[in-house]
User: Which sequence fits this backbone?
């Protein structure tokens, strides 16, 4: 193999696992155990010294297994493998995307700080920012797609030194609006210069759930941390809930320490399931984006579709940013159906193969109505501003045969047409 580094997908079956340590089992077994037996008291003492940072490890010394809230083979191998896709120093896996996100927000923000964040963010994140963080005395400033650097700096005028975190979700759910990670990285650098206190810096976090870990790599554009709902593409089968944080070693040490005390690490069983999911991650996501591109093309030519929101099919500026920042258009697409909520509901109720459910990134295709479901909590005014209206339908495209997906949306559009002709039928004169 000429010592050429392997691609991440070639590592997903074996990386970090030594069969000889598990009776030669080809697959990493499930380590369903809460605690681990020390060979000697001295060994237990040495492990705790490292776990609590009481001394630096000797050369070649690694933290041994102590207790499954601190470490477990399934968790450690999963973190090693997941980190490869984003080329991160380290990774921490959590029991949900929300526990990953809330742990990061709590660890890097404190009373008096300002959080600059993109709109819209996932509803759970939005609620945590507007309610929980507010109660802790953390101010938040929301920005919208398309706002220029000058407009953003004007919003922060006089408060620059208080901005402790920039948090982006890009592409934005459900309209695929992109935020320019590199531009925010340069804003971060400017803000960080004003934060002169000891240990003070500005941390930039990107929720990469919509695109990762294959189609966009925020760390390469200057993000400090990447967060995921691993429930989505990484899990990929709508059968588990998990989350992840990736980034540099010093930041991940802080995240993992907080996780140890909050106790919100992923369970060994979920970690074991995620190891299995990672083996097919690349082929699943490749097929999903291929299907999504073909479905988007079909929808864009359909007379009942007014507007499509799919990466690469946006305006010139968005397409240019997409080309700079992303490696594929992903598998999430939204469209405005001709009409409004009524037509959108008939369409959703008529789908047969595509399931009417929230969530995304799984092998099966899903459809939902953002304005009344995932984004119902977003202010009405903001919803209108960012095109989340009654006519918007969101699709998460799976791995089914593309002909079947196209046939399903077409028959659902036919039902909408039938429904429309029924309600517009002129009333006939009554003949006695
Ligand atoms: N981030 C994004 C973009 C999401 O869509 C979701 C969930 O839908 C989350 C975070 C939260 O993840 P979880 O449901 O795994 O807690």
Assistant:
């Amino acid at each position: 193999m000429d010592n050429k580094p392997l691609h991440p997908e070639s590592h997903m079956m074996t990386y970090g696992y030594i069969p000889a340590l598990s009776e030669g089992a080809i697959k990493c077994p499930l380590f369903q155990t809460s605690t681990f037996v020390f060979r000697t008291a001295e060994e237990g003492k040495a492990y705790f010294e490292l776990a609590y940072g009481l001394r630096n490890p000797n050369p070649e010394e690694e933290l041994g297994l102590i207790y499954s809230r601190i470490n477990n083979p399934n968790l450690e191998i999963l973190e090693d493998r997941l980190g490869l896709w984003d080329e991160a120093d380290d990774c921490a896996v959590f029991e949900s995307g929300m526990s990953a996100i809330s742990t990061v927000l709590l660890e890097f923000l404190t009373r008096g700080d300002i959080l600059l964040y993109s709109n819209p963010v996932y509803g759970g994140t939005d609620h945590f920012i507007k309610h929980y963080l507010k109660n802790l005395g953390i101010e938040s400033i929301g920005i919208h797609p398309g706002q220029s650097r000058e407009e953003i700096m004007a919003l922060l005028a006089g408060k620059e030194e208080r901005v402790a975190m920039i948090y982006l979700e890009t592409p934005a759910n459900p309209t695929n609006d992109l935020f320019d990670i590199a531009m925010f990285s340069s804003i971060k650098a400017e803000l960080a210069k004003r934060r002169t206190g000891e240990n003070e810096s500005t941390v930039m976090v990107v929720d990469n759930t919509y695109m990762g870990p294959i189609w966009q790599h925020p760390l390469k554009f200057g993000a400090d941390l990447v967060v995921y709902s691993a429930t989505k593409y990484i899990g990929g089968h709508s059968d588990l809930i998990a989350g992840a944080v990736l980034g540099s070693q010093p930041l991940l040490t802080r995240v993992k320490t907080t996780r140890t005390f909050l106790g919100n690490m992923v369970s060994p069983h979920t970690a074991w399931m995620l190891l299995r999911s990672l083996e097919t991650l690349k082929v699943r996501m490749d097929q999903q984006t291929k299907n999504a591109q073909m479905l988007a093309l079909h929808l864009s030519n359909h007379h009942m579709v007014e507007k499509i929101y799919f990466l690469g099919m946006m305006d010139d500026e968005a397409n240019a940013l997409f080309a700079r920042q992303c490696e594929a258009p992903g598998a999430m697409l939204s469209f405005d159906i001709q009409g409004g909520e009524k037509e959108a509901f008939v369409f959703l109720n008529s789908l047969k193969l595509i399931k009417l459910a929230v969530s995304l990134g799984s092998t099966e295709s899903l459809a939902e109505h953002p304005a009344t479901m995932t984004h119902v909590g977003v202010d009405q005014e903001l919803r209108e501003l960012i095109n989340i209206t009654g006519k918007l339908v969101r699709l998460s495209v799976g791995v089914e045969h593309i002909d079947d997906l196209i046939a399903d949306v077409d028959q659902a559009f036919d039902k909408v047409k039938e429904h429309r002709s029924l309600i517009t039928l002129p009333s006939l004169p009554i003949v006695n």
About this structure: The longest strand covers residues 163-169. The chain has 14 helices and twelve strands. The chain has a mean pLDDT of 94. The CA atoms of residues 289 and 331 lie 5 Å apart.
